[in-house]
Write a structure and sequence with these properties.
It is a single chain. Helices cover about 20% and strands about 40% of the residues. The protein is built from five helices and 14 strands. Strands 1-2-3-4-5-8-9-10 form an eight-stranded antiparallel β-barrel. Helix 3 (about 270-290) links the parallel strand 12 and strand 13 (about 300-305).
Length: about 350
């Protein structure tokens, strides 16, 4: 059984290249199951010793993904069994099968990982702790709530998602007893609500038109606009190039319509830091244009973080290429202006 589940996890991880991306502001519906081990530890003599056993559950959850956090709300069905290692009249096997309600708030870190707490409330039969209510003078034989910690790894596929995770839950309010249930969880999810959120989408109010695809892209990478690792301040040579470009733009305002300034980072660092850094890099370029009186309502600065790497390598030269800004000329653009910009890039690339 253990080998089967290990192979299953490896297969899903290996096929995760069929990525549906990192969900943001989306709602997914998940169904799944969990298997694991549970133990009751007790100092109550009437409980006839510690008990342990194989545990199973089935779940159905609605999961809302935000950029930095997620929350799942739903429920499931527990099939729990605990048994002591005694023989004869003192041997007890406790069985609990019950529906439960679950709330799981989580913090998202990295591209796939999330960690958070879990609060589970039992309906119907509560979690059985002691063998007999007649022996339990303090009425501590059951527990109605579990609290725990959950770590999940989110695997995207083309049409669905899978979460593989580990959880550990403890029972609350059970006197001189403790219960620990540890499980390996598998969940499959499909989108219920897709926000269609993408950081590349910019809605332009000019002429009330949404412009998505640039007519021309001029890459301002290591040749003319340089950034040090973790920095967004432009170097002197980069400022001179952008000032010269701004002069061309102000001299020929009728030759172009809109410019989207897109900042990028290399793959080092976490997603949140890189997103902020890419936005600052794009804003640095925009400020040069604004100081040269290029029309404010014709400039749009956005950051893409590390989501659009030009090179996948890990060398210093690869990282340098990825630390870039792109100018995307959107809408009407004269070919003569394009040639002027290309000549300018060539001049500052020498």
């Amino acid at each position: 059984m253990n080998k089967f589940f290990i192979i299953l996890v490896l297969l899903f991880v290996s096929f995760s290249s069929y990525s549906a991306g990192n969900p943001t502001y989306d709602v997914y519906g998940f169904v799944g199951a969990g298997i694991g081990h549970g133990k009751i530890s007790t100092d109550v003599a009437a409980d006839f010793g510690d008990k342990s056993g194989f545990q199973k559950k089935f779940t159905a959850m609605a999961n809302y993904y935000h950029r930095d956090w997620a929350i799942a709300v739903g429920g499931g069905y527990y099939l729990l069994e605990f048994e002591n290692d005694l023989e004869g009249a003192n041997k007890y096997k406790l069985l609990t099968d019950s529906f439960y309600f679950d709330v799981v708030p989580q913090y998202r870190f990295g591209k796939r990982w999330s960690i958070g707490g879990s609060f589970q409330y039992f309906f119907g039969q509560e979690l059985l702790i002691a063998p007999s209510s007649s022996l339990n003078v303090n009425n501590e034989k059951t527990s109605s709530t579990l609290v725990g910690l959950i770590v999940d790894y989110d695997i995207p596929f083309k049409w669905f998602r899978m979460k593989v995770g580990l959880s550990a839950h403890k029972a609350m309010a059970i006197g001189d007893r403790s219960v620990l249930i540890s499980m390996l969880n598998f969940q499959f999810g499909v989108p219920v609500y897709d926000s269609d959120y993408t950081p590349t989408r910019v809605v332009y109010k000019i002429k009330e038109v949404v412009k998505m695809i640039p007519a021309e892209v001029v890459i301002l990478g290591e040749q003319v606009v340089n950034f040090d690792t973790g920095k967004h301040r432009l170097k002197a040579t980069s400022e001179k190039f952008l000032e010269a470009l701004a002069e061309i733009l102000t001299d020929s305002p009728e030759s172009w319509e809109l410019i989207r300034i897109v900042g990028h980072t290399d793959s080092r660092g976490n997603d949140k830091t890189n997103q902020s850094l890419s936005e600052k890099r794009a804003q640095s370029v925009k400020e040069i244009f604004l100081s040269a009186r290029v029309g404010r309502d014709r400039l749009f600065a956005i950051g893409m973080g590390e989501s659009q790497l030009k090179l996948d390598g890990k060398s210093a030269s690869d990282h340098k290429v990825n630390r870039r800004v792109e100018l995307q000329f959107v809408g009407h653009l004269d070919e003569e202006l394009v040639e002027d910009v290309r000549d300018l890039v060539e001049t500052y690339s020498k």
